[in-house]
């Protein structure tokens, strides 16, 4: 290897290829990741729990033949600490579950292990994937929030500690930290993946998510999570014919830098010959934001029940959310549930010939400070409708801080969305 | 008490009232339940795990003041062994999970405990809530299957061992055993209740269910599971204005005794002045049956992942289901998923002025033998569409064996369905 120190910056697929080509070994990549973690974890704080290098390598070497012939070849993956792992604590960002050892692996974890991925550790989550931050800092600027709730997954991936990590999204918990940290974030259509062993927060909103540094790695891991026969097979990238542009003000408060980013992205698409159409509706998405808030409050109050026994160990925002959910009129909840259920179909019927929607992944760059994780409104509408989304990095503000834009697809047509996103990723990189 | 031995046959609400009126104590009811279990469990085999009388009474007496002022006053509830309990093993009917001790209570279990219910034990489930039977026999005829997968819950309730038990339904796992054993079975709209801590089988189909001996007890427990402020409040029973009659042959194979039962139930409605309309579509429900089968196969194969590590410990039918699910073309799955997602709305739009649908809860009475749990097709269409259903006992064949009929409602309008069901339960009882 000419530059072994850069191995931690390879994506999953890139690393697998390098190993196949004899340019490095899996152990080289693993060591490069641990080198990076040792150098950066004291500042970044992405990990709630992690294997030591020695334990990891023992696990790899004791079963090397299996790993060598497996799709993921023993490479490391991070798992958000809201997802159960049988060999590591799963604490959900809460003192209530300090040291909690799950009995079983979540299905997604078991699938990764079966494909030869090794769980390097559990990444920091906000308290029960809601608002109260953990210790993680934004690797792009340590004075800023990484976003939440998949804070550690986004930071670990953006900081090149691991090539890929699992997250989950109920409001903005994958897309926002991906946007703030500068990683790729993908949230599957609602119901797309098994959530067995992932701690539910709101059953009508929860989705599994992935964080990586490239769309192709999202596609690879998606294939593994769907138990596809040949997860390494890859479809062609697809240039969209027509894209619906959703400016941030069609959802809610937007920073000027993000207005600029969406305009840049739109200009880039147009320059590539993609037809653009502007989303002009001022009411639809703010309504979906409200529906999302209603559904989330009502359902969280009926999921975090065990924890209600120890309210003194819940943060104030979470106590407030539960109280408001318990006080909510059921009719209001049902109204929101019904509106959200048909929202996606209605939206896509209005724009039948559009291939994807381009929208801000967050209101702007990551805010300064670590007391809050930033505003979630840019994700709420799509999440309420259960649509697949992917956030792409590449654009930055004047100070060079990441500005994420997201593409939104049709429910359960995640494959088409990812094929477009891979094309757009290339266009952003060469812009 | 004039007849303390009958206390175990009281419903939850009846027992609470009797306690309030000073006719008996909670301990009397608890003892009556244990007397019944001691007498009948060797034949019925409803329990996978249960507290001893002593341990139960210790639990009650050590916190008597709490129980006395609680909604459920310390009365016993059974929990299907697919739902996690922190103080009892949860084995999912599989040797793979022998002795498995969950870390946390499921949300539904925590809600019952918070309302003053005591978990008497875990009721027998088929293997992972699929087809392979447990040890339970049908209390109405020990030579017959109790149905599955909530076998133990249906049998324990029908045999008056406990007034209420939790179940779950992915295909026909609540409605069929309720129909076969002669209990009331209720399956909530999809997404209605938190499934946190319930083991998922197929995320687009799984619903929580309840088994009891009266509709009013279903309503009471539903209110507790929804964390309603006053779970003991009760709405009026509602006589339907118009009911859609779905004969069994509109779904699939039907025994003559069930044809007769539906005709009897329809005649009863008509006699009470309820307008009837016949469901004449020959294709819609069989298509929904097929969609259900596709969705279930595809998703089960992606939920039972941990278990795939030990295929030799899976039953042959389950291995076959997983294999077929893994081999299934994704396009077929998505077609079924989409058809099922709009099926309920389409159906209810066609019959906008109908208050409920009356349909068989099973093809006939419980089949003889214990190798299988009976055919699930009568539930598959409604389950695919995510509609709330309730199975009512009261009708019997010539030999006196239970024949269940079910009422189907609109998604998330479970309250209206239960109000109608309580009226119909009264009509059936006085017929």
TrEMBL record, chains A, B:
Protein name from the UniProt record: Asp-tRNA(Asn)/Glu-tRNA(Gln) amidotransferase A subunit family amidase
One protein family per Pfam: Amidase
Domain of life of the native organism: Bacteria
GO MF: transferase activity
Coiled-coil portions: none
Family annotation (PANTHER family): GLUTAMYL-TRNA(GLN) AMIDOTRANSFERASE SUBUNIT A, TRANSAMIDASE
Keywords: Transferase
Amidase domain residues: 28-418
InterPro entries: Amidase, Amidase_dom, AS_sf
